[in-house]
Amino acid sequence: MKTIVGIIMVTAFLGAAVAPAAAAASGDGSQLAIYIFLGMCALIIVVQLFPIFFMLYGLLKGLFHGKKETAEAPVEVVVDK
After folding, report:
1. 64 or 72: which leads in pLDDT
2. 76 domain-assigned
3. How many domains does the chain have?
4. Per the confidence metrics, is the pTM higher than 0.70?
5. Which pLDDT value is given to residue 33?
6. CA atoms within 13 A of residue 73's CA, in its CB half-sphere
7. How much is the average pLDDT of 44-66?
8. Where in the sequence is the domain holding 44, given as residue range(s)?
9. Is residue 54 part of a domain?
10. Would you call 80 helix, strand, or coil by DSSP?
11. Are 32 and 24 in contact (CB under 8 A)?
12. 42 burial type by CB count under 10 A (0-12 exposed, 13-18 middle, 19+ buried)
């Protein structure tokens, strides 16, 4: 499930990054390289935000779920004679 969501997110970000370049291609096309470059820069910045979101999710999960209480294992006492 995570891989499908990841593929969808990457496709959406890539589509959003390429959309200005596709719109520029209908004009004179002189700025196509600039839009592709800016789209790649935006994609790099967005991808670098993923670890921040994962860390924030872990932090919030830890704050709201708290510590799980674990039952202590019974201690077995062995007496040698």
Report:
1. 64
2. no
3. 1
4. no
5. 82
6. 3
7. 90
8. 2-64
9. yes
10. coil
11. yes
12. middle
**Could you tell me the two tokens for 59?**
């932090």
User: For the ranges 1-5, 21-25, 34-38, 53-57, which has the lowest average pLDDT?
Assistant: 21-25
Q: Which has the closest alpha carbon to 35: 26, 47, 48, 23?
A: 23
Find the angle CA(22)-CA(13)-CA(33) to the nearest 5 degrees.
35
Q: Are the C-beta atoms of 12 and 1 separated by less than 8 Å? A: no
Q: Is residue 79 part of a domain?
A: no
Q: Print burial letters for 43-81: b (CB count within 10 Å at least 16), e (below 16).
A: beeeeeeeeeeeeeeeeeeeeeeeeeeeeeeeeeeeeee
40 SS3 class: helix
Longest dimension (CA), the chain: 96
> Tell me, what amino acid is at 61?
K
Q: Looking at the domain assignment, is residue 30 inside a domain?
A: yes
